[in-house]
């Protein structure tokens, strides 16, 4: 959590106006330490660009509204109902990552990345490059974690965004809702033995799966699952099909996103000489989870609830 430390230097107003009251107290400057970078944000950003869907959904859930002037790289076509109408109004800068020039055209004073790939130095949109132009940058902490991460990091990031954007009250409500929903599932599953699960994202020569360091692994654990590749010290990683077979998962989670239909992934597993022999495939035991639910975002409790229902009927 040290990288998420937000140290506030605030100047509270004795007599505020309506605008100040709606966004939180005014301040002289906010010092933010995020993923190895430190910067001072002089005032709540008025024009924000978000470069991944799960980051965009967090900002909309906080009530950022028309201050969000651009997004990019959607992973699915169905944002949660709570933010869907607002999401539809945000300009799509690119189907994947926009060029640095396209980002600058939106005139942001803050750019938020969901994945570290959002800030590609080689493409001219690195954090240092943007900050040199007076544009603040923030990255969801899952992408710079050096060890296992999960719901605590999500809640800390929500608090950070609430402080930076002047939306602290909304951040508090959102964090409480996420934590409350997850705790309710954990209580229902108390004492229930976990199910060994293999998460299949993609891949044929090797299986691209969920490792033990990502938010998705924490969602599995809280939903009564045991990730058979939790010992892999990455968020996502390639593993061999021999490893998949030897770990004998009893259920399979298919990761759903735009790049490849889920039914193709399932068909591949059922025709694979090694995967087809696992207890999960033989028992036809699958759960389909959108990629956005297995990354750091407001859909974290959706993943926990979905997995608990699919694996345990709870």
UniProtKB/TrEMBL annotation:
Keyword Ribonucleoprotein: no
Residues in Fe/B12 periplasmic-binding domain copies: 47-314
Pfam families: Peripla_BP_2
InterPro entries: ABC_Transporter_SBP (IPR050902), ABC_transptr_periplasmic_BD (IPR002491)
Keywords: Signal
Gene3D superfamilies membership: Nitrogenase molybdenum iron protein domain
Residues annotated as signal peptide: 1-20
Protein name (database record): Iron ABC transporter binding protein
Organism: Saccharopolyspora erythraea (strain ATCC 11635 / DSM 40517 / JCM 4748 / NBRC 13426 / NCIMB 8594 / NRRL 2338)
